[in-house]
Design a protein that fits this description.
The protein is built from three helices and two strands; from the N terminus they run βαβαα. It has 93 residues and is mostly helical. The radius of gyration is 18 Å and the shape is elongated.
Length: 93
């Protein structure tokens, strides 16, 4: 059995992970769980504001920082949920 479990930082996601762990406990041999998190996209006003020179450098830095922050946050979120599943007895992926 393969389960796709979309998660975010909400309490509802924490409850969904706990439910999945309880529901799938004891089936660790034939269970695959894929955690999925979708990062917030860069706001359109930032994408539309491309300019050259110093403003372009600042723009590029803002976009780079935005992407890195959301990537790091998402990866940490997925790791916390993955750890919850492993702590509940499901096999690590």
């Amino acid at each position: 059995m393969n389960v796709l479990l979309p998660v975010d930082a909400s309490e509802a996601s924490v409850k969904a992970v706990r439910f999945a762990a309880r529901f799938l406990a004891g089936r660790s041999e034939d269970v695959g769980i894929t955690l999925m998190h979708v990062a917030e996209s860069i706001p359109d006003f930032l994408l539309a504001g491309r300019a050259g020179g110093e403003a372009g450098e600042i723009y590029s830095k803002v976009v780079e920082d935005w992407e890195q922050e959301h990537k790091s946050t998402g990866e940490a979120l997925l790791e916390r949920h993955r750890k919850s599943l492993v702590d509940a007895g499901l096999p690590p992926a």
